[in-house]
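Deliverable D2.4 — example input (structure tokens):
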């Protein structure tokens, strides 16, 4: 998943005498491009994941350095390299502390390093890795769409993944994602990838079918959940207007089962949006796991109508709320007092309504078998936009 700060250091530690000063939690930040800058104006045009390089010429005072760091953080830069020795001898402690606090990698190279050679070197690595990432994403999409054609993708992905190992799909989405133009969505993709630290060489991140897809390979499940929670928190802090929802697919063994994890993650992501939750795991979706996997959606619509149409007609005709009352009655396992409390209604009124509901339905709702179809009907109703 892209050329990272860690990859860069492996190359540059000896070749360019690079030193890492701060922001170690951003160690795995991806790099989309490398910019030489001596002012902050261009930063406002950053897409995200840009690596900034400076000699310090345009930042004579400590306040200038702090303004630079805040701008880089605001526009989701992947890190900052300072060419020390000519215009800056010692990096301000306040700058180091800020970069540590905000997970912004801060590095130095000595004045003797030819910055043009270093930037060209890094840019070539970024370009090559981007091409590789696109090829990997295309192959993974083939896996999702045609899981039966293993021979076409297994050998291609063997050099990048443990194809016999575990796989898990996470879908990251938000309302309006599919309506964004390509440039806007690409910027958002870059920014989200900055938050997905520490997973760069065991995963692939790409946009597909109206969602951002994270495919993780041979990564401990608990670590993945911590990673996603951390990414969401960082996103909320740095992009408060964005409400990310995440659907988590089942963990599966062997890449041939990746399609299963993807489709389950799709279900969970939809539920997360409908229920306005940050993260939903498919394996914790209960009965929804069956309902969402029903291929004939017409059956689900018919079942909902069979159970609730008569009550809906009564509510329309008499401006009543019998459907809501039945939902509360089932949710509270037939407790009249609990229904009255939830609906702020007198107990006797609830008893009257439930009596009428039973007559309209022709069902006493006494046994689990009598109540089950109506439970399912309300589950189906929660699947709005899916069926």
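Example output (designed residues):
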């Amino acid at each position: 998943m892209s050329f990272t700060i860690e990859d860069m250091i492996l190359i540059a530690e000896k070749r360019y005498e690079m030193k890492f000063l701060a922001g170690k939690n951003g160690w795995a930040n991806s790099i989309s491009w490398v910019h030489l800058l001596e002012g902050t104006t261009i930063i406002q045009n950053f897409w995200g994941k840009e690596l900034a390089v400076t000699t310090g010429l345009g930042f004579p005072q400590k306040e200038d350095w702090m303004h630079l760091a805040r701008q880089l953080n605001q526009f989701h830069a992947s890190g900052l390299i300072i060419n020390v020795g000519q215009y800056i001898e010692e990096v301000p402690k306040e700058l180091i502390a800020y970069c540590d606090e905000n997970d912004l990698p801060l590095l130095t190279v000595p004045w003797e390093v030819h910055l043009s050679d270093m930037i060209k070197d890094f840019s070539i690595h970024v370009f090559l890795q981007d091409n590789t990432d696109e090829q990997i994403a295309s192959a993974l999409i083939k896996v999702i769409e045609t899981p039966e054609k293993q021979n076409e993708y297994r050998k291609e992905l063997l050099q990048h993944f443990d194809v016999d190992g575990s796989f898990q799909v996470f879908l990251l989405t938000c309302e309006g994602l599919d309506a964004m133009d390509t440039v806007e969505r690409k910027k958002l993709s870059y920014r989200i990838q900055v938050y997905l630290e520490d997973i760069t060489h065991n995963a692939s991140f790409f946009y597909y079918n109206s969602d951002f897809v994270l495919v993780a390979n041979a990564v401990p499940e608990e670590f993945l959940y911590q990673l996603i929670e951390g990414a969401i928190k960082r996103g909320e802090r740095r992009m408060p207007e964005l409400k990310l929802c995440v659907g988590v697919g089942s963990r599966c063994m062997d890449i041939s089962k990746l399609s299963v994890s993807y489709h389950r993650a799709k279900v969970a992501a939809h539920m997360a949006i409908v229920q306005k939750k940050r993260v939903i795991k498919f394996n914790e979706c209960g009965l929804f796991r069956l309902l969402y996997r029903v291929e004939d959606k017409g059956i689900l619509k018919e079942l909902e109508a069979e159970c609730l149409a008569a009550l809906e007609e009564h509510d329309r005709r008499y401006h009543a709320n019998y459907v809501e009352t039945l939902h509360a009655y089932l949710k509270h396992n037939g407790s009249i007092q609990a229904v009255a409390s939830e609906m702020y209604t007198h107990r006797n009124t609830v008893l009257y309504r439930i009596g009428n509901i039973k007559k309209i339905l022709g069902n006493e709702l006494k046994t689990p078998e009598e109540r089950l179809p109506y439970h399912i009907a309300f589950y189906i109703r929660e699947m709005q936009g899916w069926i």
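The longest strand covers residues 166-173.
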